[in-house]
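Example 3.2
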Amino acid sequence: MGVSKSGFCAFIFAALLAAPGAVQAHPHSFISLTTTLVVQGDTLTGLKMRWVMDEITSADLLYDAGRAKAGDEVWKKLAAEVMANVLAQHYFTEFWHNDQKVKFSARPQDYQLSREEHKAVLSFVLPLAKPQPLAGQSYRFSTFDPGYYVDMFYENDTDVTLPKSLQQRCRVAVKTPQPGDEVLAFAQSLDKADAPPEDMNLGKQFAQEVTLSCQ
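Structure, written as tokens:
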């Protein structure tokens, strides 16, 4: 199988090569997600995201940060490097309205990298290219690594939240897929040096889908 990794996933791949205890089947790295919808007036303008990386994936980042305090220049430099890689992969996110992809702005807002015990945490606002109307509309979005090298997931349905201004007239739901035995077996057959065919879009088959519906 061919190896095809870039950006953020390449960083994770390098970190895991040095970890003898790393899992040998896909996925090899885990990032837990929390998301809050960002609104302005009666429009949706973005997603405020928080990605918590597992300890093995975090190790190199935290080593580079050393004993630097929050806000120090080293954290800003690391955040810029990681964010550039995330941006190159379109934030690892797809956002849909009426079966049409909603475009993102190429300028992420308020991004920062921090330490939470032995884990690295990336926080940022993913801005939509254009504000989207909320009244009477429905949207869906997913965050995932297409190659399923990284499992990006919401631990609980409550990890996607609405601002107070929307809580009375909008609802969010998180749907977790149940891939078939054949897909599961294929993912488990891949080791750290393998990548699935791009047209298989393996990660999307495991991706949770968030739906937003407003009155």
